[in-house]
Every structure is written in C-alpha cells, then in structure tokens.
UniProtKB/TrEMBL annotation:
SMART domains: IG. This is Ig-like domain-containing protein. InterPro entries: Ig-like_dom (IPR007110), Ig-like_dom_sf (IPR036179), Ig-like_fold (IPR013783), Ig_sub (IPR003599), Ig_V-set (IPR013106). It comes from Sinocyclocheilus grahami (Dianchi golden-line fish). It comes from the Eukaryota. Keywords: Membrane, Transmembrane, Transmembrane helix. Pfam families: V-set. Residues 108-192 form the Ig-like domain.
Length: 262
C-alpha cells in the first residue's frame, strides 16, 4: 500500500506503475474497503468510463482517466476523497497497485487571545492559542525555537485551544504553531508589544496600582493589629483592677472579723 498525502484543493494522480499496461484488456479502479467501482478502461472497444454516481456521488465531475497509462487523476481534491484506492486488471487476479490517500484540510492561522492577570503582586500575561474546525493536527507553543507545550487531535474537533502563562518581564518571542504532516500555520507574538490596556489600566498603571493598594492593605493590617493590641491591653487592665478590688475587699472583711473577736 502506497501512502499519498495532499492538501485539500490540490490535484493528485494515482499511477498503475505497470510497464505492460497496454496489454491489459480492462483496467478497474475501486474505492474504499467495499471496493466500489469508480472508473474503468476497456481496451477492446477503446473506451473509458467514470462511475461518478458511485461512492455517494463524491467524485461527480472530478475523475479523469489516462487511457494510455491507466492512471487515475482527481483534481480539486476534498477531504472526503481520503481512503483506499485499488487498481486491477481483468486479465490477471493480482492487484496492480494500492493507494492510501489522505487529503488534509487547509489549516487556518491560529488566533492568540491575551489577557492580564495579577499573580504574586506582579502582572502576568494569560495567552490562549485557539483554532476552530480542525482535525488530524497538533497545536503547539514555542518560546523561540524551544517547544513549551502541545496538544493533538486525530478526529475533527469543533475547537482546539492551548493556554500559556507568561511573565510581564519576559522579553522573548513566542509562537503558536498549527501543523499536520504536510503543512503548518504559525502566529508570532512579541511580548514587548503586549503592554496594552487591561481593565482600563496600562501595564505601568497596574504596577503602580498594585504598589499603592499593596501599601494600603499593609497599612490596614497594621492598624487592625494595633487596635487588637490596644483592646487586649484594656482587657488586661480591667481584669487586673477587678482582681485587685476583690483582693482588697477580702482584706477588709478579715479585719472586721478580728475586731469582733477582740
């Protein structure tokens, strides 16, 4: 089985690779595991025919036969053309050739969405690379030429996304790459150009905002601690005074009892 891969919309030609093809009485091309007859060449009457309504009509007006070589051409390929193709001759039982054709959909350019997030009192960039309606692809994040992360799908996926967290001070260039075995699409991103508004503040404003609010929070914490300490001191003084008052009362009671005895 020969593997053949093309992009959607391209043309592909499947050859018999038989040097003695001219002596074959009849050439038959079949598609799929059910061996659906899609084209044939009859050398007895020197005619060729494409059965374009077979295979659910997917090949209608798109099959071309070369009467001399017996090759089958499919212009303007579609993803539904993917599958197994076999060519045989009526004069021999053996297969002349077998092809496993894979037609890959044209890849869209990945979309990178950005957002600001506040982590550990400094700004990070939350990046998400995403694509829609893709299959048999891999989506990857690169930092320069180094692979950071990737995700793959084998079947058709409605959406595919890959997140990435990048520090504000990072000056590297990042790329999101979508690829299949025969093509790729890349979206580049320069972190230094990401200093855009986030929640109504620029990146510099966010740093100042965090600094001011961080000091305010610290100030409130100190005030709360001082207030709590003051309340503890007041409570301790009140307890001390109460205990001392009770002790003095006990002494007076003992003195009165001594006078009575005398």
């Amino acid at each position: 089985v020969k593997s053949v891969s093309v992009m959607e919309g391209d043309s592909v030609t499947l050859n018999t690779d038989d040097t003695d093809i001219q002596r074959k009485d009849q050439i038959l091309w079949r598609f799929g595991h059910k061996d659906i007859l899609i084209a044939q060449i009859n050398r007895k009457n020197n005619k060729s025919k494409c059965h374009e309504d077979n295979a659910d009509g997917r090949f209608r007006d798109r099959l071309q036969l070369d009467h001399q070589t017996g090759s089958l051409s499919i212009p303007n390929t579609r993803t539904t053309d993917s599958g197994l193709y076999t060519v045989t001759s009526s004069s021999i039982v053996k297969l002349l050739n077998t092809f496993n054709l894979t037609v890959y959909a044209r890849l869209p350019v990945p979309v990178i969405s950005t957002g600001c997030s506040v982590l550990r009192l400094y700004q990070n960039y939350s990046l998400v690379c995403s694509v829609l309606n893709v299959g048999h692809v891999t989506l990857s994040w690169y930092k320069g030429n180094s692979l950071l992360s990737s995700i793959s799908v084998s079947d058709l996926s409605i959406s595919l996304s890959l997140p990435l967290e990048v520090e504000y001070q990072d000056k590297n260039t990042y790329s999101c790459v979508l690829n299949n075995p025969i093509s790729n699409q890349t979206q580049h991103l320069d972190i230094t150009q990401l200093c855009q508004t986030c929640s109504g503040r620029t990146c510099g404003d966010i740093s100042i905002y965090l600094l001011k609010h961080g000091l305010t929070i610290l100030y409130l914490v100190l005030i709360s601690a001082a207030a709590a300490g003051f309340l503890l001191i007041v409570a301790a003084v009140m307890i001390f005074c109460t205990c001392r008052k009770h002790k003095k009362a006990n002494h007076v009671g003992k003195y009165d009892l001594m006078l009575i005895h005398l």
